[in-house]
Structure formats: structure tokens, C-alpha cells
Amino acid sequence: MQLLAKLRIDSFMLGILATVALAAVVPARGTAADVLDWATKIAIAVLFLLYGARLEPREALAGLKHWRLHVTVLSATFIVFPLLGLALRLLVPSVLTPDLYTGVLFLCLVPSTVQSSIAFTSMARGNVAGAVVSASLSNLIGVFATPLLVMACMSTTAGVRVSPSAIGAIVIQLLLPFLAGQLLRPRLGWLLGHPAATKTVDRGSVYLVVYSAFSAGVTEGIWHGLSARVLISTALICAALLAVVLAITSTTSRLLGFSREDRIVVTFCGSKKSLATGLPMASVLFAGHPVGLIVLPLMLFHQIQLFTCAVLAQRYARQSEPSPLESPTIASELV
Questions:
Q1: Distance between CA 286 and CA 260 in Å, rounded?
Q2: Which among 224, 217, 208 is positioned nearest to 27, based on CA atoms?
Q3: Which terminus of the chain is less hemmed in, N or C, by CB atoms within 10 Å?
Q4: Which DSSP letter does residue 90 get?
């Protein structure tokens, strides 16, 4: 693990790549695929149960008072990103295939991350409490907003039809376990809300969803038509999308007069997309479609955002520490 850290290699993404390789060699078929589907649903439900147990309701209510910050983050997540995703329709079919464009548009519609948004905000010495509330709100609202945005945007732009019943499936699989975690928090919060438990189930559920999606892709033969050029083009589009959103969030937060700590929250929470939440939603919303191809842009974006935001967080942290020759005032003006 220390070697991976020195080489700046994310062990989580290595695990995802290993899972993709396993699905390519030993895909789940028949009964095994059915068992995998149920195991994935159970793991996702347990994950959101843990999310509910970890969130302190009083802290969340107190953090809601900073409404301008949260509205700015939510606007970036559910307004700016979708508009950019719709604009990328111009790249079909010259650069993106229809299925990959569906994936790019879908990544623009999912909520922000929770753990990494908070972690990078803390690393950059930003408003951690604000990041907790903004990221949590994004995921809670995303349970409803993402399916509605998918239905509104993709039925006319990406050619994908999503049944309204998918919203009910999302509520049952994600929201109800979250509420159950909130109810169990007074008695079992110390156990259910343990960070190690959440991290284990978080990664485990993602591995299961990735394995299931890519197994289906292998058995259906959808990967044969994916060229290296298309894959590289998709990665470059994801990188450009992240760069544009980072520029927008950074500039907007300055124009709105936010403090340095709050600008960090807007930058990190407003520019991220959740793999842990997006993959389960994709498995429900796109049943009957090539889920493996659809989630591929989100997986690429996830890795790009981790690397980019890690660099940005370290830069923010260095800027917050003035050298002996600099006064705190001068240092703050450099941020």
C-alpha cells in the first residue's frame, strides 16, 4: 500500500480494473448472474443503511443554515453538469457512439461524491462541516433528481426510455435503507456508522456492480465494437468536462463573495460525481440496455477527478501555509 501511495496509484481503481479483468475472463452467466444481481442489491441497500447511520441529523440541520453555499453546490451538480452534458450531444456520432454519449450524459446527472468530497475539502483546509452537508444533500436529492433528469434528458436526447417505475425501485433500494439507518442510529450508530464498515461495503458494492455490468457486456458481446480511439476520446472528453466545471465553480464562488474555506467546498463538492451512487442507479435505470458501456464514462471520470482533485487539494493546503517571509495576509491573497 505504501508503494501504491508513492506511485500515486489509487488502490480502489486497481481493484476496479481487476474486477473488469475478472469479468472479461470469467463472466457471470445463468444462475450465477441471478445470484450476483441479488447480492449486488443487498450490498447496495446495506451501504445506504450505513450512510444513514453515519449522518448526524442535528449536524445536518445546523449546516443547512448556510443555504447559499449548498444552493451553489447543488446548482453545479444538477444544473451546470446536465447543461454541459446536453451540449456534448454535438459529438455524436463523430466522436462518441450513442451508448457512450448516454454514459457521458448519465455521469452529468448523478449526485456528488460524499467521502472524497469531504476528504479533499479537509485536505485543502476548507469548510469540512459545509462539505459534509453539501455532499450529503446532493446524494439525498439525487435519489429523486437523477431518475427524473434521466427521464427528462435521455428520452429526447440519448434515445433511452426509462420507466417511471425505476424511480420507485431507486427509492426502495436507496432511500428506505438510508431512512432505516437514521432510525437505527440512536441505538446502533456507534456500530453501523463506523468508517471502516462503510468503506468496506462501499467498495464491495462498487466491485459487485462493475463485475455484474461488465459480465453482461461480455456475454452480450458489446465490447467488440469499442476501439482504442473511442476509449481515448471518451477519457479526453471526461477530462475536459471536469476542467470546465472546475473553472466554473471556482469563478462563481469568487464572484459570489464566498470565503476561502467555502470556495474550496464549492470547488470540490460541485465538480465531483459519485461512482458509488451512480453505478447502482445505472443498474436499475438502464435495465435492458448495455450498462457496461453506459457506466464506462463515469468510471473514467471518477479516476480523473480523484487524481486532479488530489493535486488541487495539495495546492490549496500549501497556499494556506505562508512561509516565514510571508505574512498571513499576503498568503491569503495568493489563494
A1: 40
A2: 217
A3: N
A4: G
Produce one character per residue of 131-161: b if its CB has 16 or more CB atoms within 10 Å, e if not. bbbbbbbbbbbbbebbbebbbebbeebbebe
Closest CA to 114 of 284, 253, 310, 273: 273
What amino acid is encoded at 209 in this protein?
V
Q: What's the angle, vertex CA 304, arms to CA 221 and CA 121, rounded to 5? A: 140
Nearest to 276 by CA among 11, 76, 16: 16
In angstroms, the CA 281 to CA 1 distance is 31
Asked if 17 contacts 214 with a C-beta cutoff of 8 angstroms, the reply is: no
pLDDT at 325: 44
Q: How many helices and strands (H and E) does the chain possess?
A: 17, 0
CB 107 within 8 A of CB 84: no
pLDDT at residue 168 greater than cutoff 60? yes
Q: 139 phi and psi, to 5 degrees?
A: -70, -40
* pLDDT tens digits, one per residue of 152-166: 888 655 455 555 555
DSSP per position, 193-259: T-HHHHHHHHHHHHHHHHHHHHHHHHHHTTTTT--HHHHHHHHHHHHHHHHHHHHHHHHHHHHTT--
| Residues 200 and 11: beta-carbon distance below 8 Å | no
Computed from CA positions of residues 319, 13, 146, 171, in that sequence, does the dihedral angle turn out positive or negative? negative
Residue 160 DSSP label: -
Longest dimension (CA), the chain: 68
Q: What are phi and psi of 14, to 5 degrees?
A: -60, -40
If you search the block for the grid coordinates 426502495, which residue do you land on? Answer: 172
pTM: 0.70
CB 79 within 8 A of CB 249: no
Q: Helix (H, G, I), strand (E, B), or coil: what is residue 280?
A: helix
Q: Environment class of residue 180 by beta-carbon count within 10 Å: exposed (0-12), middle (13-18) or buried (19+)?
A: middle
Residue with cell 417511471: 164
